[in-house]
Amino acid sequence: MAGNEIATNENMPITALPSIKEILLDRSLYDAMPVNEDDLEAIDTLRRGNFQIDAFCIYCNAASIFKTFRSISNTVPKSIASESRASRQSTSLDPGYFGLNASCVRCSRSYTYYFLLTNLSFSKIGQYPSLEDIGSADLVKYRKFLSKADYAELKRASGLFAHGIGIGSFVYLRRIFERLISVHHQALANAGTPVPNFDGLHMDDKIKGLASVLPPALVKHRKVYSILSIGIHGLDEETCRKYFPVVKAAILQILDQDMARKELAAAEALLESEIAAIVGEVKSLPKLVQRANTTVPTPK
Length: 300
Ligand SMILES: [Zn+2]
Fold this sequence. Notes:
This protein is an alpha+beta fold and 300 residues long. The chain has 11 helices and 6 strands.
């Protein structure tokens, strides 16, 4: 990154490395990411530049923006960015360890990270707060809505994923997803409109059958979830880690929609009861209603 220009994920070059946001918030420790010369800018930004990302702050307990505040002299001068490949590699792609602090703009508390760059790969080797703490902070709002078992498994899934455990984390997520799908089908069945042959369907067809009660985005991209029909022995660590974020996002979307519907139903019930109370009062005051309905005579 040149000078004191602030980098964002949107203007990062497309490279083999994931976005800065993904590296900081989603990547497990010790997950070696291949690097090459195209990653110069991204590595350099992490190593000594300035950037900002959107992230959940576990201290504010709210969505926030995290920024680095490094002095301009720490960043690579613009001229170096245009130097020869050999020269650039000797400046920003030097193997070694480095760290960074990104601070919440709301409370000023920091998230701290440590990295190792070798000639072939780039790894996150330490961070505080842990990925598990950051990853599960946004789950707190679902605690009251989920059963104790589902909430515990959702947190456990996030924790295992944070430690780079693919199949184990995915199994927990899959159990929660399947239970949610089953609960939604049961609700339809209770209303007298069950999906025919539901138990025999593949997951993507189950999702299609439940289109009326599931988030539209989930229904639209249901083919992605056909992975949930693959037997556990057919899965590998990398595939599970790759699909974990989309399955978790689908679970949170379902929960968000269910919570919104429940709140709407509660608000409607409250309005109904308030209207009923007013109607009751009005009925008990017929003269008042009669008077209100008659034209007020113009004073002489
Ligand atoms: Zn904060």
